[in-house]
Amino acid sequence: MTDNEVQRGLEDVIALESQICFIDGKKGRLLYRGYDIRDLAQYSTFEEVAYLLWNGRLPTADQREALRARLGELRTLPEPVMRIVSEMPQGGNAMDVLRTAVSALGAFTPAETGAASTSVASAERLTAILPAIIGQLHRARQGLPPVAPMTGGSHAAWILHAIRGTPATDLEIRSMDAALILHADHDLNASTFAARVTASTLSDIYSAITSAIGALKGPLHGGANERAMELLEEIGTLDRVEEVVRSKLAHHERIMGFGHRVYKVEDPRATIMREWSRRIGEAKGNLHYYELLRKEEQVVFAEKKLYPNVDLYSGSIYALLDIPKYLFTPIFAASRVSGWTAHVLEEYQDLRLIRPTSRYVGPTDVPYVSIEKRS
Ligand code: CMC
Fold first, then answer.
1. For residue 103, how many C-alpha atoms fall within 13 Å in the half-sphere facing its CB?
2. CA 40 – CA 175 distance, rounded (Å)
């Protein structure tokens, strides 16, 4: 790269140093604080992973239980925020509600506004509360009564309970837990970068997470999981996969859940999500989505040599957990908030205002024309 060359989309630009997440895009490896995502997804819980991201080490059993208990105590939405969530337009994008609610939470938590007063406790509070917002927005939309916060149980169980209002099975909780672990962090993705840019101005953690939610909403980022499910609905039956996918590619449409800026091989998260899609499908006696997605993978690879990313299979798991499509991206946020907050804390510790420059390509020396003489 020469001095004057523009890296569109900041592709391959190393913007900062971080100790949180490592992606090997050529080998398809993903590490959180040095630990392989495959081990974490198989042997750990989301709470352990969140602790790891925030503190740099895995917790002991006591530390994990203490974190679980603290998260359990932080699940109550302040009454004014509850009202804001309930009164937002019911038919709109759920990420708008989530973004607005987190922004409002910041206004109701003035003691935490500012880098100096931000700590792991702020990260825990934000992480614990997101399912309460998601549950309330869903229940208001369905005309259902609010669900009282669970005081015990894991983050995964809390998300399922906040949305459905009924206890989940062990397998349902375990599949949600795996999905949360796999979405928890991913280096300088667009939403994490947005959070760090905001934090780098010495703004508060609520503003940083509000920025991140706005970025995650986009269909090229977290919003892809909802679009991937829309495509499955459009396809409908196995015999239509080839025709529909080929036609979309022929019209230069993007197939959501495929391709990645960093991975040149299969996204390791997709490998694990695929397996969970099969497991939960078998347990529920419904492999419809799994089979459609397997076929879709074959067609997209044959046509474009593209691999699936984390967003391809997540929707199939959530749908089998009776979660409506409009909550798929908010659930992504309920996991990624752990990574966002870890990055905000890291940014505050080694702060440098993030302020790149652009190469100006507009006109110069334009003669000024007074308003009366403009046509
Ligand atoms: N479907 C069809 N074509 C694709 C796709 C896709 N999903 N992804 C990339 N391509 C094609 C693209 O059209 C281009 O082709 P050509 O060179 O002929 O114009 C080529 O591949 C390179 O695409 P690009 O946009 O320059 O590559 P990128 O590094 O900017 O793309 C991406 C990364 C994620 C934006 C892109 O793969 C995409 O749009 N995927 C679909 C959306 C998606 O699944 N997003 C979730 C990403 S993972 C989770 C997350 O971070 O939120």
1. 13
2. 13
253 lies in which domain range?
Answer: 224-320
Residue 187's region, left for phi above 0, alpha for psi from -120 to 50, else beta, is: left
What's the predicted TM-score (pTM) here? 0.94
127-140 mean pLDDT: 96
Q: How far is the CA of 364 from the centre of ligand 1 (A)?
A: 35
User: Using CA atoms, how far apart are residues 31 and 269, in angstroms rounded to an integer?
Assistant: 11
Shared domain check, 169 and 36: yes
**Whole-angstrom distance, CA of residue 327 vs CA of residue 338:** 18
Q: Assess whether the C-beta atom of 66 lies below 6 angstroms from ligand 1.
A: no
Indicate whether residue 276 lines ligand 1 (CB < 6 A). Answer: no
157 and 300 both lie in a single domain: no
pLDDT digit string, tens, across residues 339-371: 999 999 999 998 899 999 999 999 999 999 999
Which amino acid is located at 259 in the chain? Answer: G
